[in-house]
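Wait, can you check?
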Amino acid sequence: MKTWDQLFVRHGWKLQEEAVNVFNCEMETKGNLAFLISCLEKARVSYCVEDKNLVLAEEPIGEKEWIQCLKFPNRGRVEGLWFEPGQEEPKIEELDTYISGVVRQLNRLGFHTTGSCDGHERRVPHVLVTKERDINQMAELLFALGMKRVYHREQRDYFHVSLHLKRNELLDLAEKMSVIEENWLELGIEYIKEQMFYISLEQLLSIPGESGNESQVREFVKDKLHPFVDFISTDRHGNILAEKTYKSGSDPTILLNAHLDTAFEIESDRKIIKADTIWSSNKGILGADDRAGVAVLLNVAEYLVNSNFSGKVKYIFTVEEESGLVGARNMDEYFLWGTGAAIVVDRRGKGDIVTSCGGSIPFCDGAYGEFFEEVAAGEGLTGWNCTNGGSSDTRIWAEHGIQSVNLSVGYMNEHTDEESLDIEAAYETVELIKGVFNNVKGLRRVMREIERKELVMEITG
């Protein structure tokens, strides 16, 4: 279920959420506010306007229901060349229903539009953008936000930019664009991608979910993961299970895992202290164990959709890991069938590739851990080395015969008020995992080597 803030952003309004269901309207035009009020009334949502704030008295409605309230005959048929110095911004009711959010965000970022179409599920959506700004910056922005193809052609007074997305995906794009700051555009694709990761990380660090009470964070993760997988469900224990086959599916099947729960509850009124790249909490735990791991895997899931990987990935976000690996221990075994390798993201510090529990319980063959060292070196990531570690969900996957490692994700002093997170270290873990998927040829080689070794041991006894 989307929040009111999400619904407003995705459908074109520029409001500032001051508190839950309280929105400052100073940045919005009178015409767009009037259209919003009419839509709320159509939806029979109770509201009041207090000074410059819109206050909603009810929980948000479903997005499909909200879209029905935004529609009217011939909406979007009249869209003028509205943008001239001194004139007001686009009128939402003059824009096609599914592209209004994208249009508003493009204009906020300085890419001024003179026309748009959401495709009406019959053709490719597009926007017409004036030549005031470098169109290549707009293309880089769209690539950074996950688009695989961006085509534009130059006309006399504007660029015609094709957006190869489904109509619902335009809404997701608008939501992503809403957090972009204009000055990021000068810093390029990689900078934008990294900042988007930190925004997702901060969102996850703000959601409660101690062991046994993971429902809120579970719904958040399912909502974020859903567009990037073929199948997603919640098992009877509360674990999120998802699966995606990429291209031919001929490459290895890999399990990606992090846990949803925190050891203690995140304080509702706490603030995140940001000292350069080190984040901490002003009150209670930070919650980076293992919300940092969750953020890493959501980022990887989005990346893989447009990658060259041709295998299958199984995603497992477990519950009650902090209570004794409860979610992983009670997993239905069938979901693990066919899985050859696992990557868990739930290790403190930087640069650890954990290959055993205490040195006595192996998680994998040595060659599998060494493969991660090789990938890190090839990606220019320094300090990554195989080591022993403690108990984690990794132990459960290894017990099922899956080659498994647990990677550092930057947190320290977990489960205490002194917990901290090196966010750059967390993002480096993203880069390492991407490197693994980009080196699937090497992974196949290692898996064959391990299989031959196991076969020899079986024959020789």
In short: The radius of gyration is 24 Å. The longest strand covers residues 253-259.
